[in-house]
Amino acid sequence: NDESVAIRYAEIIDESFREENEHNNFDETNYDMLDEMYLIQNRDVFESAHFARMLQRSTEISMVPDQKFVDKYKLHFGEYSATRFESLLNDYNESTKLTDEFKATNEIPPFLNIHVFYSCNWSRKYRVLTVIPDIVKSYLENFSIFYKAKMPRRFIEWSPHLSNCVLNINEITIKCNGITAAILYSLKNGQKTSEEIAQELFYDVDEVEKILNNLKGSNYGNFILMKNDEYSINEEASPDGDSINFLKRSPQDNKAEERKERTAIMTSRGRQVESVIILCLKGHPAIKETELFNIIGQRLKFILDPITFEEKLHSLAIKRFIKRDTDEGTVTYIP
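Above: the chain sequence. Below: its structure as tokens.
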């Protein structure tokens, strides 16, 4: 029941999938590791850690290993446990079709990959990337126009946390996510305070300082300098091998934040389910619970699981908003 064991297990799977993808050798024996997962009592932590790494892999490598893993995970632990994983896989497949269609009529440089994920399927804060490098800005604007024409009721926001960038600054190669890239891009014209950068990026000033202070360290060749509360890029920086691999925060670092976000999202979804139940019942004198479940599932923008549905029916019945007939299996709205 050790959380660190569950997180480490997700790391091992991530390493295995990346190795399989690199050698294009999808070994079925690797998925037998699920048998060992019965020993992990804290599967909640594993699923959050695995999902975070799965989300990162979806923007970097093929999802073939993940598809095989999720199929077996569902067989072992049931459909509900695999819901988040399947939602992301569906997003990945739909995104691939969408970008392929865009590429058929629009030219984009080989270094730019565009992915679209629906926010209702995963828990992340909205982080709008306001500073977009000129080299990709026109392509992203064109894709936004294309996307709006295809999905007029939806809007698109570019997430810096999920992007992966390779920068070349002063002949130093830097691998980082979009937040770090945007911060460094902001500093390209001169020194700035963390408050100025945060205001420019609409980003938390504490997070900006954490990133810059890390890059100030000797581990990264003192890539960032600070003088009189202003940060700047060190032109004399000398990281090992003239390269910097500035990884994203690990699932352990984000654990408390992830749980808070997940709780908020589940609370919001619960209220949505209750609202749709009442709305549907107002138009029916009495309706079978199975039929109601199907109707509600079609109206929601996320996948409704039977456990949540049952909890909300029970809650509404206690509050006397609805009446349940267990013999007939029907539900009635109480005006």
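The chain has eleven helices and eight strands.
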